[in-house]
Write a structure and sequence with these properties.
two-stranded antiparallel sheet; globular; alpha+beta; 4 helices
Length: 107
């Protein structure tokens, strides 16, 4: 399966943030693609926050269920959304091996 880079262009960042703080202006990826694991979730994964460092890259494997699909057109414009509830999850150190590289390039 090919991996798609979800990084936003500068124009997409401007369009997605009606009012921008300094921190929001640096956003490279949509906020909706961020997940937060609390203490209880980390415990289920047999991990704790100190297992991670800022800027670590990790591999995420998960199973989710689509819980909402919406498409609307109103005075603010058109929008389309799909909400996915992650039900099963595992984390691993991100390793750039040749098989993963092939998958990410769609080969």
């Amino acid at each position: 399966m090919k991996l798609i880079d979800m990084k936003q262009s500068k124009e997409e960042v401007k369009e997605s943030l009606p009012t921008t703080s300094k921190e929001e202006a640096k956003a490279q990826y949509p906020y909706g693609l961020r997940i937060t694991l609390d203490k209880d979730s980390l415990k289920k994964l047999d991990m704790d926050a100190m297992d991670f460092s800022l800027d670590d890259e990790i591999s995420i494997t998960c199973v989710g269920e689509v819980v909402r699909v919406s498409k609307s057109d109103d005075q603010y414009g058109k929008s389309e959304n799909v909400e996915i509830q992650i039900m099963k999850l595992n984390l691993a150190e991100y390793k750039w091996d040749k098989d993963f590289k092939k998958a990410s390039e769609g080969k």
